């Protein structure tokens, strides 16, 4: 859609929504005056004007005079705050929700709702500590507030507090039922953090928890392979990575560095070529796998064989930027130019396009490699391969985990 048209449509939508909310607030103001309130001016409308003009203090002061028992006016204020958050005007959203919390005699239900909305505002602003504080207040007031628990879990994931994320997930499962695939991902993340801190025994314990949560978790297998590598156990690492590939073949290009480390740990680096070659025979159209093999062959100075693999990639996709750059590296190292005239001309014209063979089934983000968790929408197990061009462009598969999908949408 043309950006100008989109902006006009958004402005029209905002105007309609504001008109509806103002109508509710007018009604609330008239109702208040009819009940013997202050006739000097419509309290909600005055507050709305202050908030829209950015005067949060005066807006909060005036909104604090809103009758706490008027659900229509409160609902209108909530709607306005959410509208501004969706629009991206987060400062106004915060001021509105803080002003609601200043209403005297506000019921526990309305207070919890406003606090939750305020937490969402802070999260969008990147103020994670304040967001967590808000959601924790909600959970303290209502231990069964599943959405607040979910927000806390996701915030813990974002800041790398995997132990906290696991704790909140356990409480959430008590309300919604078991989610073994998601729990396994959290254990895998926790294990990696422990590995980064060189706490190998604790990492092994957490990997075992992940395996118990979901015996078919490829993520836990990969974390286990990282543990084996930290212990210098190359053969065990290869075995764990092989099991992960059996469960999720599409992760191969993402774990090539781990495979390289595992084979190097055994002084069997050349065997990695056989490992990749066997899988390429089963998946001959996997350009990322073929590129990984080409890079491996170049590192072993098998330049003719590497050039052959790159030629295969560029014949299928002349715009593959990664293959073009790899070809340039190969030529700089003295690789053969014979038979690559077409590819060389293409390289001189530019770097080409970076292939994005993966996409998130949740938010649609296209990616150069596989991730268990989408880096944009943070959904677990939502990333899969984009289907070939003959499929509909919107037909991106939602990748289910071995246990039916980890995300709890």
Describe the structure.
- The protein has 19 helices and 3 strands.
- It is an all-alpha fold.
- The chain has a 3-stranded antiparallel beta sheet, with no helix packed on it.
- Keywords: Repeat, Stress response, TPR repeat.
- InterPro entries: CellSynth/LPSAsmb/PSIAsmb (IPR051012), TPR-like_helical_dom_sf (IPR011990), TPR_rpt (IPR019734).
- This is Heat shock (Putative periplasmic) protein YciM.
- TPR repeats lie at residues 112-145.
Question: Which helices and strands, and how do they pair?
Answer:
Elements: H1 3-34, H2 43-52, H3 56-63, H4 71-87, H5 90-101, H6 108-125, H7 128-141, H8 146-159, H9 162-176, H10 180-196, H11 200-213, H12 218-230, H13 234-247, H14 252-265, H15 271-282, H16 287-299, H17 303-316, H18 321-332, H19 341-349, E1 358-360, E2 366-367, E3 383-385
Antiparallel strand pairs: 1-2, 1-3
Helix pairs in contact: 1-2, 1-4, 2-3, 3-5, 4-5, 4-6, 5-6, 6-7, 7-8, 8-9, 9-10, 10-11, 10-12, 11-12, 12-13, 12-14, 13-14, 15-16, 16-17, 16-18, 17-18, 18-19
């Amino acid at each position: 859609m043309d950006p100008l048209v989109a902006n006009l449509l958004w402005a029209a939508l905002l105007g309609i929504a504001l008109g509806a909310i103002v109508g509710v607030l007018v009604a609330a103001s008239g109702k208040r005056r009819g009940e013997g309130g202050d006739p000097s001016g419509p309290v909600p409308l005055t507050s709305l004007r202050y908030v829209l003009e950015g005067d949060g203090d005066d807006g909060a002061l005036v909104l604090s005079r809103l009758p706490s028992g008027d659900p229509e006016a409160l609902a209108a204020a909530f709607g306005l705050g959410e509208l501004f958050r969706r629009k991206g005007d987060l400062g106004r959203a915060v001021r509105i929700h803080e002003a609601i919390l200043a209403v005297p005699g506000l019921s526990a239900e309305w207070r919890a709702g406003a606090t939750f909305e305020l937490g969402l505002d802070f999260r969008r602003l990147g103020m994670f500590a304040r967001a967590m504080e808000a959601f924790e207040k909600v959970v303290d007031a209502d231990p069964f507030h599943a959405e607040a628990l979910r927000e806390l879990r996701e915030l813990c994931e974002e800041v790398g507090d995997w132990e906290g994320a696991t704790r909140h997930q356990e409480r959430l499962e008590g309300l919604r039922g078991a989610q073994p695939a998601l729990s396994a991902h959290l254990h895998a993340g926790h294990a990696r953090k422990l590995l980064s801190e060189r706490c190998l025994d604790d990492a092994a314990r957490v990997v075992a928890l992940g395996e118990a949560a979901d015996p078919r978790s490829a993520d836990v297998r990969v974390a286990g392979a990282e543990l084996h590598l930290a212990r210098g156990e190359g053969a065990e690492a290869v075995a764990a990575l092989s099991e992960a590939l059996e469960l999720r073949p599409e992760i191969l290009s993402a774990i090539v560095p781990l495979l390289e480390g595992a084979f190097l740990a055994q002084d069997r680096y050349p065997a990695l070529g056989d490992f990749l070659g066997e899988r390429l025979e089963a998946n001959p159209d996997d350009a990322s796998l073929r590129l990984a093999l080409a890079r491996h062959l170049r590192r072993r100075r098998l330049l003719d064989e590497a050039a052959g693999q790159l030629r295969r990639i560029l014949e299928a996709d002349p715009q593959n930027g990664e293959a073009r750059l790899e070809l340039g590296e190969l030529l700089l190292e003295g690789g053969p130019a014979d038979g690559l005239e077409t590819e060389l001309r293409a390289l001189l014209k530019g770097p080409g396009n970076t292939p994005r063979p993966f996409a998130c089934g949740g938010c649609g983000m296209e990616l150069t490699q596989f991730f268990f968790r989408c880096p944009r929408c943070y959904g677990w197990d939502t990333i899969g391969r984009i289907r070939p061009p003959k499929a509909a462009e919107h037909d991106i598969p939602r990748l289910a985990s071995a246990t039916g999908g980890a995300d709890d949408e």
